[in-house]
Amino acid sequence: MTLVNHEFSKRAALSVFAGACALLAFSVVRADVVVLKNSDRISGDILERGAEQVTVSTSYAGPISIPRSEISRIESGAAPKPVVVDKAVPVNHVIDIDGKELIEDAALDAAEMEEKREWSGSVNLAVKLEGGRSDGEREIDGDFRTRWERGRQRFRMSGQVEYDTTDRNATKQDWMIVPKYDHFFTDRAYWSLSYAAKQEKYEGLNLRQTIGPALGYEFFSNEKNELISEVGIYYTTEDYTGGNHTSYAAPGWHLEYRRKVWQDKFEFYHRHFLFVRSDDAGQKIWHSWTGFKFPIYEGLNLSTELELDYDDITLNRSSNLEETFRLKFGYDW
Fold it and tell me: Which of 71, 299, 309, 326 has a Cα-to-Cα distance from 107 of 20 to 30 A?
């Protein structure tokens, strides 16, 4: 009798386990998923879709209200079902993409798509004057960064200008511009194609051009934090003022990081790229920008920044490592 009861209990336990697994699988398949801008996912049944927030019924925390400003998209594995909809919100419809049904909430997705059609970025200016006379030392530095996103596509571009004079004679006239196109093949991974052009007129570099593909990974990207890393192989041509020309391939590593700190009152950021000549690992380029950004009003801000530029490839440089500290006034949009 004991053996029979034991066997029955064992079978009953297996049946309960199998049923629970089936129920779980069924619920997962049919659950709605709200994907947040920080890549978190909240599963459950959508109870209400209002103009300001979306309410999801979850099995682990009950009803949860999520502000629309934090939502990236809404996915559904089931056919559309009746939900309470704010009258101010346009009617939604369902689109099947790669086997997933995405609930196209007109109020949410139209706003998101409109946001991603727009350009965002920043422009900064730093001016340094030394000497009490008009013919003293002057340094004017400017830079910009801009980004455009839509769906799985992203376009980024950055640039920098440095112009120094001493006794009204130009001593530095450098500029750099880097446009880049990214295409995401997963939510976080993407391939990239970039081009860079740089001139260091008084360092002997007339023009350096770099182009090549890379693979990138976006660990996280939202209003408060961002970490992006890329590795690639780049083809470089260099034209020097003296008439020398050279070309080479170089593996490269690029990183972008920013984080809101101290109760989100200011921002820490760090960007760098590293190139190493494939035919001579002893020759490399390291360029980095590290700083803090302090908001003033609306999009206006002040930044303190340390730039490090190490280049033992360019000919006739007075120093392999250049350190520049700036106080910049900028505007973000």
Answer: 299
What is the rounded CA–CA span in Å between residue 252 and residue 210? 11
pLDDT greater than 70 at residue 107 = no
Pick the closest to residue 287 from 328, 262, 320 (CA basis): 320
Distance (Å, whole) CA 134 – CA 3: 103
Q: DSSP secondary structure string, 56-105?
A: EEETTTEEEEEEGGGEEEEEESS-----EE-TTSPPPEEEEETTEEEEE-
196-219 pLDDT, tens digit each = 999 988 888 899 999 999 999 999
Mean pLDDT of the chain: 79
Note the pLDDT of residue 91. Answer: 41
What ranges make up the beta strands (E) of the chain? 32-36, 41-49, 53-58, 62-67, 71-76, 84-85, 93-97, 100-104, 120-130, 137-150, 153-166, 169-184, 189-200, 205-221, 225-240, 245-261, 266-277, 280-297, 300-311, 321-332
Q: For the chain, where do the domains classified as CATH 2.40.160.40 start and end? A: 120-332
- C-alpha neighbours within 13 Å on the C-beta side of residue 224: 10
- Residue where the block lists tokens 């002057």: 138
Name the 3-class secondary structure at 194: strand
pLDDT band of 320, cuts 50, 70, 90: confident
Q: Return the DSSP state at 262.
A: T
Nearest to 207 by CA among 166, 240, 172: 240
**pTM attached to this predicted model:** 0.65
pLDDT digit string (tens) for 212-259? Answer: 999 999 998 888 899 999 999 999 999 988 778 899 999 999 999 999
Query: What's the CA dihedral at 311, 313, 318, 323 to 10 degrees?
Result: 0
Q: Which CATH class is domain 120-332?
A: mainly beta
